[in-house]
Design a protein that fits this description.
heterodimer, A: alpha/beta, five-stranded parallel sheet, three-stranded antiparallel sheet, 5 helices, 35% helix, 32% strand, B: alpha/beta, nine-stranded mixed sheet
Amino acid sequence: MSEVLVLVEAVADGDNIGLKKVTLEMLTAARVLGEPSAVVAGASGTAAAVQDRLAEYGAAKIYVAESDDIDNHLVAPKAEVLAQLVADSAATAVLLPSTQEGQEIAGRLALKIGSGLLNDISEVDADGTATQVVFAGAVIVKSKVAKGTRSTPSVPTR
Amino acid sequence: MNLVVLVKQVPDSGSERTLDSSDNTVARASADNVINEMDEYAIEEALKVKEAHGGEVTILTMGPESATDTIRKALSMGADKAIHVTDPALHGSCVIATSAVLAKALGTLEWDLVLSGAQSTDGGLTMMPALLAERLGVAHLSGARKLTVDGSKLTVERQTDGGYWTIEGQTPAIVSTWDTMNEPRYPSFKGIMAAKSKPVTTLSLADLGVDESEVGLAAATSTVLEFASRPPKGAGQQVKDEGDGATKLADFLASKKFV
């Protein structure tokens, strides 16, 4: 079964580190495409706090890149981590949250790995066909990546 | 400080927008096209930086010939000159190819700071400044609700969900602006008249040294397979209370898995 990378969106609330809901939604969407691998890229201690929940929602593997350099910089180190993982694994798709940061990572990643991308998808089928709701909800679009690994910012419930 | 502002012409978000059924690209020819409203904040900020630190503001646009209107609007706000990248082969280009073309166009200019809007209201992408930063190897300070320029040092308050972060970078850099950053000025009558004679340089793919095979619909890294207008909302179901109204409502909620 093909491997699908999911970039974990963790959120710190005081001393507690939790998962943003979009992470769980992406894990669910990733299971449609293949076998989800969660990618934790952030401050040290993040993976330990969230790994049980990630496994519960279907992450078969968890990649961990924890460093102050990741936590103290904007998007570029996370894009580099994902590009390395794509190069070193057999991943066929990458799912990211369609936030400002997620989109910026997705763009940089797409250039690094020579892949197309789809933005703001609400649903994905097993063959990679994605649903996007555009023009403030007036038009529903079905689209697909035409080149390379799918690098897909995703908010499945949107 | 020389500034470049990325500006895009988009179909007016206030009027009906759709795709062109012949090739599934954004219907631009039939649309009421306007300047992407998010870009006006970037233009305003560039003009403010110029007023405080000197230099020149250049508008950079890629788009069909009709985008001239949008360029004139930007010039009438006070920008000095414009570059219009236009070529029939660019029709249907994906965001990745567009970033390659804009990066080449930026290479024809001497600049310290590129400003962009938060996103385009047609493609809905928040990605172009990040793609250009990656291609050009310069810093990207995104989501700015405030920008301070001190020589080559840039300080930005980056808007986030829960507040803001203060981030720093050095020129050359790209700053993407948030719509809380300023209040874009209206073009004055004098500005509108002056815009008519400001220089606009038109560049084709050949001028930029980009091969036609690298851009356009055929080379796009993503494909729109099909599209449909959202179906109109149907009439709701009326529940008449004949003593069993509560049961009917509960059954309805149970059937939708709410309870």
